[in-house]
Design brief:
Layout lengths: L7 H4 L7 H20 L4 H29 L9 H15 L11 H4 L2 H19 L3 H15 L5 E6 L3 H13 L5 E7 L1 H6 L6 H4 L8 H9 L2 E4 L13 H7 L3 H8 L5 E6 L4 H12 L3 H8 L2 E7 L4 H15 L5 E6 L1 H11 L11 E2 L4 E2 L3 E6 L3 H13 L12 E7 L2 H11 L9 E5 L5 H10 L5 E4 L4 H18 L8 E5 L3 H16 L8 E4 L2 H4 L2 H5 L2 H17 L4 H7 L4 H27 L6 H13 L6
Parallel strand pairs: 1-2, 1-4, 2-3, 4-5, 5-6, 9-10, 9-12, 10-11, 12-13, 13-14
Antiparallel strand pairs: 7-8
Helix pairs in contact: 2-6, 3-4, 3-6, 12-13, 17-18, 21-22, 25-27
Length: 627
C-alpha cells in the first residue's frame, strides 16, 4: 500500500528569498570550484576525487531527487511516492550528463526564487562533477600552450596520436638524450578517444577509477606537452598549404610554434598501428609547396611513418626525396618498418648470424656443415627473415663449392602469400634451397614432418603475426626438440618474435625458464623484435643500420677513390631509375657492413689477443688495387 500525504502545507516554509543566503551559497559554490581546479594539478586531482567522489556524487544525487520530488508534486504524480521517486531519480541521474527536466517541474515552483537557486546550484555541481573527468585535460592543454608560446629550445618531437609505439619511443628519447634542448609534444586525435572508453557516465562517479586517464598521466610523468586535433586524418584538398591543413585540424597554434626562428629541427611521428592512416597523414604533410609554406620549409623536418615497405609508401618516400633534390622543401620521409627493424636486430647481433650455427674451418674460412633454417609464419617478418637467412646462410664449403643450404617456410596461408613474394623476388622461385610449405602446426602431419628434419635444423624463426600463437608454438616446439633431437644442440637456436608489449613478459619468462634450466645447452630461445627494442632513438631517428652502412661505404670510398656517400646520394635523387639504383646501393651498403662480421668470424678473427693477431696476419695478405 502506497503512503500518500499532502506536501502543499509544508511548501510555505520555503517560500522566502534571502539575498544574503543566496550570496553565501554562490560564494560557497565558487570556492568549491576553485578548490577543484587547484586540485587538477597532475595526480593530486586523481587522488582527491578517487577518495571523495562517491560521497560527493551521492550527496548531489540525493539532493537532486528531493528537489525533483518537490517539483513533480503535481497532477498524476501528486501524492504517489513511488511514481515521484522513479521520476525524480531518473531526472536526477540525467543531471550528471547536463540534461535538465526543469520544464516538467510544476509552474508554481518556477516562481520560487529559493527553489530555482537550489535547483540551479545542484544541477551546476552535478555537471561540474562530471566535467572533472575532462578538466585535467583542459588544464594540461592550457599549460602546454603556455610552454609552447615561450619555447626556446631548438628541437621539437611531435607525436601524432597517443599510442603505445609513440609512448615507448618518447620514453627512450628522454632516457638517451643527454642534450635536453628539446620538447616532446603529443597530439590527441578523435581516434584516440575511440580506443578506450573516455566518455562520461554516471557509473564513473561511483567507481574507484574516475579520472584514471592513463595516457594523460603518462604524458605528464614524461614532462611532455599535449594538444588536441579536430581530425585524425590530415587532408590536403585542392593544393592546400600545410598552414591551411593545420588550420583545418584546429592546430594553427602549432604551425605558428614550428615557424619560430629558434625551432630548427622538427620531427613528427605517425606511429599508430593503423598503417594506412599513417601513410595518408605522412603524405599530406610532405606534399607541400614552396610558395605557400616557404617559412616552414627552411627548417630541417623529418616525418616518420610506421608502415611496411608497400609500393605506396615507397613512392611517397622517393617523391619526398625528389622534391628535396629540386629544393622545393627540406622534408625527409622515413618509413619505420617494424618487420625490417625486427630482423635488423638479429643482423646487429653477430652471435645470431647463421655463421654461428655451422662448423667452420678458420684456416680456409669455409663452412664444414650444412645450414638449415625453419621459419614458422610468413608475414612481413617471416619474409624479412627468409631474405636474411638465405643471404647470410650461404657459405663456401671445404671443397670450394657452395655449402649445403636449406630454408623451409611453413604457413597455413602460404598459397596466398607466396605469389606476391615470388613476384618481388623471382630468383627464389623454383629454387631447391627454398621450400614454401602449406602446413598447420596444430596437425599431426606437421609434427610427423618435423621428425624427419629435427636433427638437421639449426635456426628456427617463429613469427606468426600473433604473440599468443607464438607463445603456444614455442612451448610445443622446444619440448619437441628436447625429446626428439639427438644431434648436437650447439648449432641450434629458436628466435621468437614479440609483436605487442603486453606479451613480452610471458615470452621472456618462457625463454628464461628453458634457457636457465638447461645450462648444458645454453641459450636456446631468443625473444626479438619487441616494441621496446624497435622503437628506440637509435633505430628510428638515428637509423643506426643506415649510419653503420654510411661509415662502411665512406671507408671503402676513400680507399678506391669513389664519390663520398652524400655526393652519391644527391646524384641519384631525380629519376625513377636513379631511385631504384640508389635503393640497391643503400641495401648493399648495409649488407656489406653485416657481411663483414660473417667474414671475420669465418677467418677466425675475434676480440681476444689471438683473434687480433689473426686480423693483423690477414691484413698483411690484402693487396690494395687502384680501380
Amino acid at each position: 500500500m502506497l503512503f500518500l500525504f499532502d506536501i502543499n502545507p509544508y511548501l510555505q516554509y520555503i517560500q522566502f528569498d534571502t539575498i544574503g543566503y543566496r550570496v553565501f551559497l554562490s560564494v560557497l559554490a565558487i570556492i568549491v570550484s576553485i578548490i577543484i581546479f587547484n586540485k587538477a594539478d597532475k595526480k593530486k586531482l586523481n587522488r582527491f576525487i578517487g577518495e571523495k567522489i562517491r560521497f560527493i556524487a551521492a550527496g548531489i544525487l540525493v539532493s537532486g531527487i528531493i528537489l525533483y520530488m518537490i517539483g513533480f508534486w503535481d497532477e498524476g504524480s501528486k501524492g504517489n511516492i513511488l511514481t515521484l521517486l522513479f521520476r525524480a531519480t531518473l531526472s536526477s541521474l540525467e543531471m550528471f550528463v547536463s540534461h535538465s527536466d526543469l520544464l516538467e517541474v510544476r509552474h508554481s515552483m518556477h516562481e520560487n526564487a529559493l527553489y530555482m537557486f537550489l535547483f540551479a546550484l545542484i544541477h551546476f555541481l552535478a555537471v561540474l562533477l562530471s566535467a572533472i573527468l575532462v578538466l585535467p585535460l583542459i588544464v594540461y592543454i592550457s599549460h602546454s600552450k603556455r610552454v609552447l608560446r615561450k619555447l626556446k629550445c631548438k628541437r621539437l618531437f611531435i607525436f601524432w596520436g597517443e599510442n603505445t609505439n609513440s609512448f615507448i619511443l618518447a620514453e627512450n628519447i628522454i632516457q638517451t638524450q643527454k642534450d635536453k634542448n628539446y620538447k616532446i609534444l603529443f597530439i590527441e586525435t578523435p581516434l584516440d578517444n575511440t580506443e578506450s572508453d573516455s566518455s562520461i557516465h554516471f557509473t564513473h562517479l561511483f567507481s574507484g577509477s574516475l579520472v584514471k586517464n592513463e595516457k594523460m598521466e603518462h604524458i605528464t610523468e614524461m614532462g611532455a606537452l599535449l594538444l588536441t586535433s579536430q581530425v585524425s586524418e590530415l587532408q590536403r584538398i585542392k593544393g592546400q598549404s600545410l598552414k591551411e591543413v593545420f588550420a583545418d585540424a584546429r592546430l594553427s597554434f602549432l604551425y605558428q610554434c614550428i615557424e619560430k626562428q629558434n625551432i630548427e629541427d622538427v620531427k613528427i611521428f605517425f606511429l599508430s598501428n593503423n598503417q594506412e592512416l599513417n601513410i595518408r597523414n605522412a603524405s599530406a604533410f610532405v606534399a607541400t609547396t614552396e610558395k605557400k609554406d616557404s617559412p616552414i620549409l627552411r627548417k630541417k623536418i623529418a616525418v616518420y611513418c610506421h608502415s611496411y615497405y608497400t609500393d605506396m609508401c615507397v613512392t611517397y618516400s622517393y617523391g619526398s626525396l625528389y622534391k628535396r633534390s629540386l629544393g622545393h622543401n627540406n622534408i625527409n620521409l622515413i618509413i619505420v618498418d617494424t618487420a625490417r627493424l625486427a630482423v635488423v636486430e638479429l643482423k646487429n647481433h653477430q652471435e645470431y648470424h647463421p655463421v654461428r650455427f655451422v662448423d667452420v674451418d678458420t684456416e680456409t674460412a669455409t663452412a664444414k656443415s650444412p645450414f638449415t633454417a625453419l621459419i614458422i609464419g610468413f608475414d612481413e617478418s617471416g619474409q624479412e627473415a627468409l631474405k636474411f637467412l638465405y643471404e647470410f646462410g650461404t657459405f663456401i664449403g671445404a671443397d670450394g663449392k657452395k655449402n649445403p643450404l636449406k630454408c623451409y617456410v611453413l604457413s597455413s596461408h602460404i598459397d596466398e602469400q607466396k605469389s606476391k613474394f615470388y613476384m618481388e623476388y623471382p630468383a627464389l622461385e623454383n629454387n631447391p634451397e627454398v621450400e614454401l610449405l602449406n602446413y598447420d602446426h596444430n596437425t599431426p602431419a606437421f609434427w610427423k614432418w618435423m621428425k624427419t628434419i629435427i636433427n638437421d635444423v639449426n635456426y628456427v624463426v617463429v613469427n606468426q603475426g600473433n604473440d599468443a600463437e607464438n607463445l603456444h608454438f614455442t612451448t610445443e616446439m622446444i619440448q619437441f626438440v628436447y625429446s626428439k633431437r639427438t644431434a648436437n644442440m650447439q648449432n641450434f637456436k629458436m628466435f621468437v618474435r614479440s609483436y605487442e608489449i603486453e606479451y613480452y613478459k610471458e615470452l621472456s619468462d618462457i625463454a628464461a625458464y628453458y634457457n636457465i634450466t638447461n645450462p648444458q645447452w645454453g641459450e636456446k630461445i631468443v625473444v626479438f623484435g619487441t616494441q621496446k627494442d624497435i622503437f628506440t632513438y637509435k633505430n628510428v631517428i638515428e637509423q643506426e643500420a643506415v649510419y653503420n652502412s654510411v661509415f662502411f661505404y665512406e671507408t671503402y670510398a676513400k680507399l678506391v677513390g669513389e664519390k663520398d656517400w652524400m655526393a652519391r646520394f644527391k646524384s641519384l635523387s631525380r629519376t625513377y631509375a636513379q631511385h631504384q639504383e640508389l635503393a640497391f646501393h643503400l641495401n648493399q651498403d648495409m649488407s656489406n657492413f653485416w657481411h663483414a662480421k660473417t667474414k671475420t668470424f669465418l677467418a677466425g678473427v675475434s676480440d681476444d689477443d689471438q683473434g687480433k693477431q689473426r686480423l693483423e696476419q690477414l691484413l698483411q695478405c690484402v693487396q690494395h688495387v687502384q680501380i
